Amino acid sequence: MGGDVRADGHRDGDGTHSHIEASGNGCGSGHPFLTNGQGTEAARRRIRPGIHTGKERVRALGSRRHGHLRAGARGPQRSLAGHRRLARNRGRRHPRRGWRGRPGRHPRLCCHCVRPHLHTHVAVSTKVQGFDGKWRSLDGRVLHALGVAASERYNTLVEQEVRNRLGVTFVDETRGRNKRSVREIAGISRELRDSFSSRRAAIEDAYETLVQEYVAKHGRTPPKTVQLSLAQRATLETREGKSAPKSLTRQRAEWRLAAVRIIGEVAVDAIGTTVRQRRQVSAQDQNLAALSIDELADRVLHTVEDSRATWRRSHVAAEAQRIARTFANVSPGVDAQQIAEAVAQAVMARVIAVTAPTLNPVPEALQRQDGASVYRVHGTERFTSERILAIEDSLIDAAGTVAGFAVDPAIFATTVETLNAASSYPLDASQVDLARRFASGGRLLEVGIGPAGTGKTTAMRAFARAVEAGGGRVLALAPTAAASTVLAEEIKVEAETAHKLVDVHRNGSPEQQESEQYRIDSSTVLLIDEAGMASTPLLADVLELAQLHGAAIRLLGDPAQLAAVESGGALRLIEQRVGASYLDQVHRFVDVEEAAASLLLRDGASSSLDFYVTADRTRGGIRQSMLEEIYVAWAADRADHRHSIMVAGTNEEVAALNARARLDLIGQGAVGKSGALLHDGNKAGLNDVIVTRQNDRKLRSNQGKDFVANGDLWTILGDEGGDLKVKSLRHGGVLTLPAEYVAAHVELGYAATINRVQGMTVDTSHILVDPQSTSREQLYVAATRGRESNRMYAVVEETLEVDAHAPDHLRTSIIDALTAVLAREGAERSATEEIQREQDAAASLSTLLPAYEDALARVYDPDQIGRMEAVVRDVLDVGIADRVVNDEAWTHLASRLAAHEARGADVRAQLAAVVRVEDTGPDSTVDSFAKIYHHRIGAPTLATGESALPTWVTPPPVGAVGDNREVRDWLHAQADLIRDRTAALVDAAAVAPEPWSAALRPQPDDASLRWAWRRDLGNVLAFRDLNQITDAESPLGAMRTGEDAYAAAAESLERLRVVEDNTATEARRRIAELGQRLSGASDAEAKVDVAKRVRQIHDRASEPAYQKDVYSAPIRPRPKI
């Protein structure tokens, strides 16, 4: 099986660790069959040290290069030198000192169900103890970022060890659609390896048996509730948990018997000889073996460029490992690891750094051992190349160049009039504008942006008819064959994939190039649909063809929707630099409010969620509950004859939903019980809906007009010995899918991943939303597929308290989860945009402030917390002091006290002055002493120069509290950068205000008032910049309880608003209402309760927003800030 490294985080009691599982190339389910007879044990002994060597070398490298410690969410990162215990495998966990025990030396030979699967487990402690005795956290960002590179390194090492020890050869083997080839040992049958996985088929078989037993006993089909129970029972009964321990000899014997049943005894006995046979080296591999390091580096760089516009060093390392394995396989005696490192080094010498340098270089005290800043995450630097930047420049230039075919404006106008006269739905203004620009714009390259449901097809139909009326021809290009076929049918033009067109004009015959389907000339307009899915190099190839033949290019898409990883963000770059035409009227939805909400959702506005919540389009709960709710809702829609789709984020979840649907349909007698085993592990029988996931132009229907395309949906008409006779749901054509294709490229079609539903229109959609992984683009695409409704099912893992307010808390959790998704942009950016973004990030407060505050508190004045705790314990009673130092707001109070101390204040006297007797009385409403003391003490009075800092930021040291002069000088320089950034933000907002600032007072003319206005606006803008808030309608985003910065920004925002806060008015109304209840209360206990609530309202109305708003639990409807 192909090599893989999988990392997961786990929490166990009070300790946390990461689990890494690695499976090496070629040795997965084939390891028991590498030799025959008595040679098996000898072969195993030769393989085992090789596996161990590979694992230990990867682990050692991880400890040495990639083991870094992290302090806090925005904290610094330090190397592991001087700390103990990075990795321990199966060690015994000490309750206070983390993971102990010796590193594992024995790889697992099987999975839990005792099928052969050679893999290695390593438990990596994320809590590391230093020689000073303190425990610190390992930075998981580095481990996850470098996971692929570590996987490929492990693969290379294991392959080299096994090849050298056993004399076998490795070959590339495809793993299906959109997957890289994996390396397998030549001579071991794929049928043998794949046969050891049949879990879902076993579930279906068990379910069918249970249904038959129920019918035999009760004489009727089981109802839906019973069907669900039977399905769950089938799942549990076929689950193969960890079996009882077996000796390796017994396991090998069982595996051999299983293999004999699959491929026969003769073939099994011959494996040992077969895998050692000398194999013919292909011409391609011979050419590879002749390349120099520089030539190999060129290949690696080209592959990386085709995959993404910017990349990390780990991407280069992974690709270098892949090419080094193939090189070493045909070059005996070569060390693949040395080749990989030399190639990676040569590639890195050719790239351009995208990550901006630090504006204020850190002193030695703020550096890791390698000299890098502790505030820069190791391994996350990004790079690009001259080729990528040149391509992006050429696309921008093309968008400003007059060239190519253009339709006379009068002809275009006549065409639109004709189309509108013949249609019940005339083109809207934006559709006409887009079609006109595409037909008559006259530029070599034009861009059109169409949000979901805005009628792109209608506009393109008008554009195509106008071009034809003017004597030209539209050749449509799409990212997939299925999409190109649909596009051709919808706008009645020739269509193909962009890759196919480029390939024909590079490698095809002259007859192909001049054929009606592929010819390009000066009257041709190339329309690239879903242009956001096209890679930057592919767009460059199409542009080269257009320039060569005098054609024009039109790009149609939406940067806010999904793009392929390799897309490179070129569409958005051209839109930003040159401009585009926009479709702005949404036609898809039955509900006009949903149409408006979808556009807000597209922009990431949290206000878009108001519609989905109030219209009851959201649900929340644990993952399994949400998957079940999705299925139940989908089944109800299907019963009502609606075209509905279930949408999930992963292939595994989609396969589970598909399996659930099929089990129900079997119980209803709607689909056949028996069927063919599919690529996703499910079965499919008569009447099942399936989806083909691989283009195959040899499989055709409709008299050869249509071929099998990735993403096409089909209904099964019959099973002919494993071959499936199917009918297209799109064009009605009938054909037969061979058994080999079915097993490798067919899945059930009741559910789909988010990426596959782009371009689809249905009646209803039901979407699983994971706030930890779903991006804004994914949510927007999934939530705009259904004409009638689109429902979101958010994974809310927390167990909710069961009380009267549980529904409100649940709704808030749903909103918080969806808000987190809207804040997560997943779109690929162009290298040009990424460079600008990195430069902006280097100057942003999200970079400057955390480093400043950490250096001030931890490095310059590391004893601050301890000193302030001593102050608190000197002034306050023991019980109150304990509550303060254990409060979530304690560090904020400590920082505020330290700021006063730095200016010569007597902090003990200041703290004593804010302590009130009534705070600890029986009628006290104070929930948090740290929070209320923090507000009462207030910020120190600052000098004029210091006042330009956000008010919650402690100014740089003015005395000699610390003893590191270099750090002090760095802090002052960093503070200057923070002041400059805040002032620049205020200046920019004054010139070009954002929508959220419409309700704010304008800048005063009076100098003193203007100074206060700029200070308050600076606080709000600094908070937005610190937290990277981009919501145009919500100034401060989601409420952040316990944050000093949020409190300061919220208070500033209130002072800036035109309308006075109505809190006091509302409080008076509620007090009057409770006063009436008090007078009418029937007993003393009720009167005491009402009176207490009156005092609470009064106290909260008189306390500042810091106590009242920031630290109260947000319950819907939440106040908009």
Tell me what you see in this structure.
This protein is an alpha/beta fold and 1121 residues long. It folds into 5 domains: 1-188 and 246-279, no CATH class; 199-238, no CATH class; 387-582, P-loop containing nucleotide triphosphate hydrolases (Rossmann fold); 592-822, no CATH class; 836-1056, no CATH class. Helices cover 48% and strands 14% of the residues. The chain has 42 helices and 36 strands. Strands 19-18-20-21-17-22 form a 6-stranded parallel sheet, sandwiched between helices. Strands 1, 2, 5, 8 and 9 form a 5-stranded antiparallel sheet that branches. Helix 5 packs parallel to helix 25 (651-668). The longest helix has 27 residues, at 39-65. The model is unreliable at 1-22, 35-39, 79-106, 798-810, 1059-1064, 1084-1088 and 1094-1121 (pLDDT under 50). Residues 116-259 form the TrwC relaxase domain. Residues 62-71, 81-103 have a biased composition (Basic residues). Residues 1-20 have a biased composition (Basic and acidic residues). It comes from Cryobacterium glaciale. Pfam families: AAA_30 (PF13604), TrwC (PF08751).
Please supply descriptive tags for the structure shown above:
TrwC, Rossmann fold, disordered N terminus, 5 domains, five-stranded antiparallel sheet, disordered C terminus, 1121 residues, TraA-like conjugal transfer protein, P-loop_NTPase, alpha/beta, 36 strands, 14% strand
